Structures are given as structure tokens and as C-alpha cells.
Write the C-alpha cells for this entry.
Amino acid sequence: MTRNSPAEPFSRSEASGPQGSPALLQTTGLSKAFGGVHAVAGVDFRLRRGELRCLIGPNGAGKSTFFKMLSGQLRPTAGTIIFDGHDITGEPQHRIARLGMGIKNQVPSVWDGLSVYEHFWIAARRRVGARAAGTAADRLLGELGLEAIAGREVGALAHGERQWVEIGMVVAQQPNLILLDEPTAGMAADEVERTADLLRVVNINASLIVVEHDMQFIKMIGGIVTVLHQGRILIEDAMEKVLDSRIVREVYLGSGHARG
Amino acid sequence: MAPARLSVVEPLLWIAAAIGLALLPLVLSIFQVVQITVFLIFCLLAVSLDLSWGLAGLLSFGQAAFFGIGGYSYAIIGINGTMTSAATLAAAAAGAAAAATIGYIAFYGRLSAMFLAVMTLTVTLILLQVMGSTADPSYRVGSAVIGGYNGMTNIPSLVLDPRGFFWAVAGLLVAVVVMGRLLMMAPFGRVLAAIRENEQRVELLGYDARWRKLLTFSLSGAVAGLAGALFASWGNFINPEIFSLAQSAQVVIWVLVGGRGWLYGAVIGALLVQVLTQYLGSIGTAYTSLALGGLLVVFVLLLPNGLLPALSRGTLSLGIRQA
């Protein structure tokens, strides 16, 4: 069971939820090795329905690899992934997406030759008819404040705007679970704030896992924080407790902080 | 709302092209009609490549293979006395089947775009060797002798009258271009455009890119096969040179020069290059390859997107727009 696995030497707060409630996502012993390098090494992870979780950890902790296994972009070396009652371990990515998982990868991944409007339209069109997709795209343009650039080709947009477009696509997909890998990278301060607002709204209907380096942003959106280190879960707790943890400061912020 | 719309120019362009092509044989000599007919067949072949390369980003050097397979299918079935219209349909089906076989391996095997280009070229060159080694008269299908490098002769015409054949070819070209443009505009076509730009992003939204690419590639093979049948019918002759490296590269050059992703660009590129080849050939054959090579260098350096995108500045763009 997840609670006392050797990978997690620290106890969780009660905020991680009663074990009895059905998990939306549960991984057991999830591992990925690239040659001899264990990028993710036996992660037991559990996410409740409706939860907003932040995933942090130093570079190379295995966050992006973890996301890529969840979304089917990488096949796990070992372990299982249960999503919404389905075993999705090793399933093709489009099938996982159809079960209601949306992901924004770390490197912005958009369609440079297509307009902003088309991005939202195509994302929504998978589930609904052409007319409804148009309505959804219009609404999303309004919510994200992107009406002015609706007709522009995404290849010509600034980095922050491209991030918005990709986040918007994932929202247009209407998934049950949204994975966001560094959503605010390259955004200005006001854009970061708007992203936090948006995620709070999105969280009403969907569960979220967010990988971030920006501590201000993590404080803004709240939620439980899971710290990954060397492919394992180091600690899982509320933001303040995680920041207070000596061992987290040691591995995440560098040993200098822990001593000082 | 209508999810996508054509620019008002386009339907007018189609009508103008149809009227122009309908009237052309009435004012030209039979010799000119026959000459332009083969240009239009090459246009159809160029359009077939643009359907896969321009629309879905699937670069194939195998259009010559599907073209040749279509031509040989038409020849074999036609010589054996089947109705030539049925032979034409069979040629399109053969082209589609060949493309589907290669496409299935490439797309469902998750092979890279580079692999598709290399594999299609390899298949084409293998066909050149195989068809070239059928000189022995024992290589025959019914009454059709394959003939090795000598090729097949006495292939029946689809339409005997040169003007009638011109109209048939022109009608098919206009029909394929119009249907191709409508396909590009449809939701299916927009998802293909997204696959061309970033396939993984499309898959992460829940779309299965594999069958969409397979269908598009097969359609492209069908159109190339159809063009092959028309080509065999045009000269009443076919030989394995159709599978040569020069022929394979030629199709890519047409689309490169005209501009990919528009279908019109493929037509313009094929016409331009073929008319130029014809003209240079009439002066002296030594200069033809040199001049064409020079033209290609100029285009790659100065107009990497091809002629049409440089000229149109977006008037023909097809994206899904807001109501």
C-alpha cells in the first residue's frame, strides 16, 4: 500500500485524504529505466478525485518521465497505472487521452501553422460536434482573453502565449485529469497570476497535477505537494510543511540552505 | 457556425478552370491537345503527392511506384480485354493497395517520416529491377506480355478520340483537386494539418493519427494509380523507366517548385517544370538536366515554400475560422 512504502520515509498529513475514497489515479511501483539510469524508481502515487496536486523536485528527479508514463508517451519498465478504474499501463497515448487525461508537456507542443482558434476547435471537436466545438472554442478564447489573437498562426506567437494556447487546448479537451508540466515557464508575472486563477476554475471540474519550479505559483494555487527526488517520492504534504522540512531543503534547494 | 469556409475566390477559380479546359481542345491542334494531355496527367500525379505530403506531411518518393503500378495494372487488364474504364478503376485500386501496404508498415510500426521516404524510394527502385527482368516471353498475364525493359505496347486507349481523352483527363484533374480542397477544409483535413504540424499533440488529445495517415496515404496512392492508368492509355505504352530514380524525384520537384499544401501549387509546379523541360528539350537535350537543376537550386534558396505561397499571401488559406 502507498502509505508506508519504503520509498516514502515520511508520514503524510491527513490532508492527503482518507484511504477509503476512490482514487482517480493510482500508480504502484511505477518505474522507468533508461539503460542503467533509473529515472523513476518505484513510485506509489495516489490522487483523489477533484484534487489539485503539485509535483516538485530538482532537475532530473523524474517528474517529466513520470508524466510521460502516465500519459502513455513512455512505456514503464515496471509497475502499474490505474486511471479512473482502468489499467492504462502501456496503453497508447490516444486511448489514455480518450479516457479523460489531458497533458501539457514541458516543451510547448503546438501546431505552428494553425490558428489559435483552430487549436481550441480541434481539441474540443474530438468529443463533440463541429457546432459545439465552435461554441467551446469561442468561450475558451473569452476566458483566456485571447480573442484578439484568435486568427493568428501560433508559430508567430510569444512563448507565454504559446503556453496559454497549449493549456487552453488541454482545457478544451474537458479531461477528468489534467497534467501540466511547468505551465508558467516563460510567462510574465501577471500571466502567472492569471494562470493560477484559471487553474482554480478548471479544478472545479477536473483533477490537476502540476509540475512547477515557481514556489510563488505553488503557494498561489495551494494543494498538497509531492516532492520527487532521484525517481522516488521523498515527501508528500502541505506546502508549508514541505518547505519546513529539513531534508527537502537539503535535496531541493541545496545543502547550503539546510545548514543556514 | 460553419467550422470552415472557402475564400470566395476558389469556387470561381474552379469554374474558370473547368470552362477553360473544356474550350481549350477546340482552339488547339490535335498535336497540342495530345501534348497538353500528358502535362495534365503529370499534374494529377503531382496532386497525388501533395495530398499526402502537403496535407499530412507524409513525404513519399513512391508516387512513381504507385503511378507505375497503376499503369501496369491498366495495361495488363486492358490488354486482356476488360473494359478500359474498369481497368482504370482497378489501376486506382492497385495504387491504393500498394500505398496502404507500405503505409500500414510505416504508420502502425511507428516508423519515422525519414523511414517512409527511404522505404518508398527503395520499393520504387526494386520495382524498376523486377519489372526490368521480365523480358522473357514466359512473363505474361493472359495475353499481356510484360516485356522487361522493352515494356508493354498496344495498350488500349481509355478514350480513342484525343479531344475526348483530353476532356476525360481534365475532368478527373479538376474533380480530384476540388475534392482534395474540400477534404482539406473538412474537420478530417484540419486534423491532418495538425498531424503534419505536431503528431504527438494530436494523439495526446485522443485522436488516433495512424488510421488517418493510412487513409490519406492510400488516397494519395489511388490518385497516383489513376494517373498511371491515364499515362499508359495516353501513349498506349509503358516500360519500367516509370519506376526510375529520375521519375521519383521529378514528382517531388514539381510539388517543391509549385509549393506544397495547396494542390494548386502542385499543378502549377508540374506544368511549369514540364513545359520548361519540353522547351529545353527542343533546343538541345544536354542543357535540360542542368537547367532544371539550376531551377531547383534557385527555388530551394529563394522560394523554399514554392511559387504559390510566395504569390498568394494567404488569399487561399483554408483554416477553420471564427464565425
Notes: The two ends of chain B are 6 Å apart (CA to CA). The longest helix of chain B spans residues 30-56. The interface with chain A takes residues 1, 3, 187, 190-191, 193-194, 196-198, 200-209, 319-323 of chain B (CB under 8 Å). Chain B has a mean pLDDT of 91.
